[in-house]
């Protein structure tokens, strides 16, 4: 098992997403002119062109938009199978964030998903996603 | 975008007085737009004849389908990889698998429909002696038994990697009139981006307006308007096919069927060799060879000349599309009146 890829955290347009994750917060870029969320985050809004955009904290819930279970391994840090999920944020459905689950879980389009914060070493944290039910079960223990 | 730089071509062919060169578009989305740029250069007097080429050595060396090289940090500087590769989203098949799964969720597209798409290309390749998969038949049992790469895409949903090159010469219709080969007229070209697209290359496409719509919908609108033609007037088509899903997306985007109906359309045989509008007649990227879709333009020219192995009888018009994600392009070739 080799070292997990970690995200560049120094980019001016995207760094605040990862800085917030280190604090256990999920943030997304929102346009104050048209009200839509923008992901991937850029300085201006991709829908209306406004530069009146800002980081806003998300409630951290979403729905499953798409997924793929990777069966052909290509990277030593990612033994197969594992499943990449794309989640649409409840508070900004245009914002679709990536997550990953181990194995090949049974998933359904539109199912509720919950953010969690995954430590990947040296203080780095990735906002990650799992089915909301699983989160509740774990919440009892 | 091509690793073979213009200077290398100029040197290899010992060309004198080259007066125009351009690097157009990105990857497989570029070839039709490259022809468009060549036509624009000729029409504006910047060039008389333009060689449009693509060369790849994906089989032996420059594997585009491979994962990014192992390293520790991902992303930054407008690549936006930081939102994808740390989660294990690493390759083109995985990225297109997410779009394919979205298509399934929206429209119920089936394994058998993806399979029929792959088999259609393979059947054409098996009638085309220069195709990479010539002599290697594929049936539905083999397709369904092929190993899963990234659900729902199997091995045979993925295109080939090829050592090869393809090129066309673009010149004025006046000059083409007395050439030895009958010309294929460029009726129209168009280039466009996807709705709600963002920076970055391939992975962010899943975050665009609706990734199943891709850029091809916007290319199609421009193309049909400029060509003065619509999907019903197209006799044969070469549809960019890095994966089976991109064929389905484009049959819908170019208006050959409604959204979600491409799977049933392929199964109906309408785009098979004997159908109303055959597609990917030399096997395309899936089974002919992967030259980023410049091979699709070459096959389009063959159809208009009447020299293809899987020839559509009396083909007057051929649609050729380039990669449908990101900046995409397409053109219509037509027989001279
Ligand atoms: Zn806006």
Describe it for me?
The complex is a heterodimer of chains A (about 140) and B (about 325). Chain A is mostly beta strands and about 140 residues long. Chain A is about 10% helix and about 40% strand. Chain A contains 2 helices and 9 strands; from the N terminus they run βαββββββββα. In chain A, the strands form 2 sheets. A 5-stranded antiparallel beta sheet of chain A has the order 7-6-5-8-9. Chain B is an alpha+beta fold and about 325 residues long. Chain B has 11 helices and 9 strands. In chain B, the strands form 3 sheets. In chain B, strands 6-9-8-7 form a 4-stranded mixed beta sheet. Chain B has helices at about 5-10, 30-45, 90-105, 110-125, 140-145, 175, 215-225, 245-255, 260-270, 285-290, 295-305, and strands spanning about 50-55, 75, 150, 155, 165-170, 185-190, 235-240, 315-320, 330-335. Classes of the chains: A mainly beta (about 140), B alpha+beta (about 325). Chains A and B meet through strand 1, strand 5, strand 6 and strand 7 of A and strand 2, helix 3 and strand 3 of B. Strand 1 of chain A pairs parallel with strand 2 (about 75) of chain B. The complex binds zinc ion (ZN). Zinc ion binds near residues 31, 34, 36 and 48 of chain A.
């Amino acid at each position: 098992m080799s070292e997990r890829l970690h995200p560049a955290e120094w980019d001016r347009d995207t760094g605040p997403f990862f800085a917030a994750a280190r604090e256990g917060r999920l943030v997304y870029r929102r346009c104050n002119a048209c009200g839509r969320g923008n992901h991937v985050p850029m300085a201006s809004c991709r829908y209306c062109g406004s530069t009146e955009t800002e980081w806003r904290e998300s409630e951290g819930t979403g729905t499953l938009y798409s997924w793929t279970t990777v069966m052909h391994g290509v990277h030593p840090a990612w033994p197969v199978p594992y499943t990449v999920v794309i989640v649409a944020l409840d508070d900004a459905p245009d914002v679709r964030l990536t997550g990953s689950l181990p194995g090949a879980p049974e998933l359904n389009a539109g199912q509720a998903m919950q953010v969690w914060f995954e430590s990947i070493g040296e203080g780095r944290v990735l906002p990650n996603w799992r089915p909301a039910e699983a989160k509740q079960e774990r919440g009892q223990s | 975008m091509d690793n073979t730089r213009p200077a290398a071509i100029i040197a290899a062919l010992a060309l004198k007085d080259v007066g125009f060169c351009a690097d157009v578009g990105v990857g497989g989305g570029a070839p039709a737009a490259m022809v468009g740029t060549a036509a624009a250069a000729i029409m504006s007097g910047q060039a008389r004849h333009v060689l449009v080429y693509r060369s790849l050595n994906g089989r032996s060396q420059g594997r585009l389908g491979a994962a990014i090289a192992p390293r520790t940090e991902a992303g930054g500087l407008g690549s936006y990889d930081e939102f994808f590769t740390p989660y294990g989203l690493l390759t083109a098949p995985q990225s297109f698998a997410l779009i394919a799964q979205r298509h399934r969720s929206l429209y119920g597209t089936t394994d058998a429909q993806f399979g029929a798409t792959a088999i259609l290309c393979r059947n054409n390749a098996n009638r085309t002696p220069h195709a990479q998969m010539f002599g290697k038949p594929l049936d539905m049992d083999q397709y369904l038994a092929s190993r899963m790469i990234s659900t729902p895409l199997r091995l045979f949903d993925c295109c080939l990697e090829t050592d090869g090159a393809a090129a066309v010469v673009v010149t004025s219709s006046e000059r083409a009139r007395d050439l030895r080969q009958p010309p294929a007229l460029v009726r129209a070209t168009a280039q466009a981006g996807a709705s709600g697209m963002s920076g970055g290359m391939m992975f962010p496409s899943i975050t665009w307006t609706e990734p199943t719509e891709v850029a091809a919908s916007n290319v199609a609108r421009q193309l049909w308007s400029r060509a003065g033609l619509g999907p019903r007037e197209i006799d044969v088509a070469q549809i960019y096919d890095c994966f089976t899903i991109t064929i389905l997306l484009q049959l819908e985007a170019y208006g050959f069927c409604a959204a979600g109906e491409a799977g049933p359309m392929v199964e109906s045989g309408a785009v098979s060799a004997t159908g109303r509008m055959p597609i990917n007649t030399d096997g395309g990227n899936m089974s002919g060879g992967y030259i980023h879709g410049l091979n699709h333009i070459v096959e389009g020219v063959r159809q208009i000349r009447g020299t293809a192995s899987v020839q559509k009888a009396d083909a007057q018009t051929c649609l050729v599309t380039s990669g449908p994600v990101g900046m995409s392009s397409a053109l219509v070739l037509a027989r001279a009146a």
